[in-house]
Amino acid sequence: MGNYATDHCNVVVYAQVGKANAGHRVQNETGLLRPKSFNLPSKVVYLGDVATHILAHLEHPETPLFTQPPKFNEQKWAFETRSGGLEVRISSEPYWGLGLFNSGYINTIQLYGSSKSCSRLLYDLVASLPRRPWEMAHTNAAGRFFAKKSDVVTSKSNELEWKKALEMADAVFQEQLFALEEQGRKVEERIKLSENSENWSQEQAALSIDDALYDLGVARGALADGNAPGFERAMARAEASFILADPDQAETQNRTVENNNPQGHVLSYDVEEEDVAFVDLTQNGEEE
Predict the structure, then answer these.
(1) Which of 84, 167, 218, 246 has its CB 3.0 to 4.6 Å from that of 234, i.e. a possible disulfide?
(2) Is the dihedral of CA 167, 168, 174, 178 positive or negative?
(3) Residue 14 contacts residue 106 (beta carbons within 8 Å)
(4) What confidence tens digit (pLDDT) does each residue in 18-74 have?
(5) CA–CA separation, 55 vs 52, rounded Å?
C-alpha cells in the first residue's frame, strides 16, 4: 500500500473515524470546503476528526476540493488538497451500521509526495488523535470492507503500513538528534582548547552547554511521547545554546562587527592634498 524505498512515495492507509459534526460546508458552485458560517449556496459536510486533523497538520494547504461532494449522506464524500509537494486525497464512507453512527465510518487516506513528508504527516496525525487510527471499532465489518477493496489489503496490512510510516518518521528524528549531539561534542572540544576573550568566556560557555544538554533531554522525551512539535522546539533551543557556547562562533561574530560600520561607509577627504574649487552662482542669479 506504500513504497518508502525512494524519495517519492505513494501511500494508502485506512483510518477509523472517531467524531464528526456539521462544522463545515461545501460550496455548490465550486466544490470547495467552506466554514460553517458560509452564506452562499452550499451543503453541510461531516468531515470527522481524522480529516480535520490532517488539514491542521498541513503547513500550507490549498482549499480542499471535493471530487465527491456529500449528498443525502453528509458523511460520505471525497476531497483532495495539496500542501507544497504533498498531495492528499481523503474519502469517507460507511462500513458498518448503515452509516448511522460515527464509528461506522472509515477514511481512506492517499498521499503522494516525498517519503519524509508522507511519513511526517501520518506521524503527526497519530500523535494528535486520542486512539490508534488503524484500530477499527468493528473488526468483522472492517474485514469485509477491506476484502471488497482489494485482495491484498487486510486489517493487519493496514496496521503495518501505518507503523512503517511511523518508523520512518522516527528514524528521521533520530538522525537529527544524533547530528546535533555530534555538533555539541565538537563544540565542547573547542571549548577545552580555547581561552577567554572579550566576547567569550569558558564559564558562560559551560552554562550554555548545560542548557543545550537539558534541551536535548527534553527532545528525547518529546520523541518518546510522539510529540514532534515539542521535539523540534527543544532541538532548536539546544542548537541555539550550542552556537552561544561555540568559541568559533563568537570569533566570527566579533570579526563581523568590526568589519561592519553601522552608519555605512564614510568618505574621507584630505583637503590639504587638493584644493576644492567652489563656483559662486549667486551673482548670476542676482543679475537675472
Answers:
(1) 218
(2) positive
(3) yes
(4) 999 999 999 999 999 999 999 999 999 999 999 999 999 999 999 999 999 999 999
(5) 5
